[in-house]
Design a protein that fits this description.
With about 210 residues, this protein is an all-alpha fold.
């Protein structure tokens, strides 16, 4: 038991170190990316961040907290790569993060953080797919946004006072409206109107 506890404490310390290091790496990439040679430096820094978590996750023996933080980091990196113009790299990492959090959610269905993060990642991937040059991804985007909306609808009913969840739902509805505007104007209109109403309520509550 003492050895297990020591191993867990060690894993938690390594998780904290990796999280802090990754945060710094992502911050640095935002500063250097437009400098001469910044793109190659950015790629190197992001690769380092991924290795940190890949190693930690491999050694964690399936520790849920570490797998979750690893997935969140891959989602951060996906967003960074998207901004830097590597859409395929962003898609790959979002998909990997979503796969991990989906597995964690199945193991612990009622976990609020898993559910909310999964919905957010699904929306982000759908938004990224909208920027791809091909147009055969509508079905994938629709499925992602529908899943995100359903999860957030359930969460906002369970946690009515959580403004963060309300904001996330409004963002998903906005994405859904933008996605369906040309293909289903009526649905898009309803989604955008509801998103606007939610944002107005959130602004009023915060004033």
């Amino acid at each position: 038991l003492a050895l297990e506890q020591a191993a867990r404490l060690s894993a938690q310390r390594r998780l904290k170190d990796a999280t802090e290091a990754t945060g710094k790496l992502v911050e640095v990439t935002a500063r250097v990316r437009e400098l001469p040679g910044g793109r190659s430096v950015t790629r190197s820094l992001l690769a380092t961040a991924e290795v940190l978590y890949a190693t930690l996750e491999r050694d964690s023996d399936g520790e849920a907290d570490i797998r979750f933080q690893s997935a969140r980091t891959r989602s951060q990196l996906a967003r960074a790569l998207w901004v830097y113009g590597d859409l395929e790299g962003g898609i790959e990492r979002y998909q990997s993060a979503i796969e991990t959090v989906t597995q964690l959610k199945l193991q612990t269905p009622g976990n609020k953080e898993y559910r909310s993060q999964l919905a957010s990642m699904q929306r982000s991937l759908a938004d990224l797919l909208a920027e791809m040059p091909d147009h055969d991804r509508n079905a994938q985007r629709d499925a992602l946004l529908t899943a995100s909306q359903q999860e957030l609808e359930s969460l906002t009913q369970e946690f009515e006072s959580d403004a963060r969840l309300q904001t996330s739902l409004a963002q998903t509805l906005s994405s859904l409206g933008a996605s369906r505007r040309a293909r289903d104007p009526a649905l898009a209109k309803r989604a955008l109107e509801r998103a606007a109403a939610l944002f107005e309520l959130l602004i009023a509550a915060g004033s």
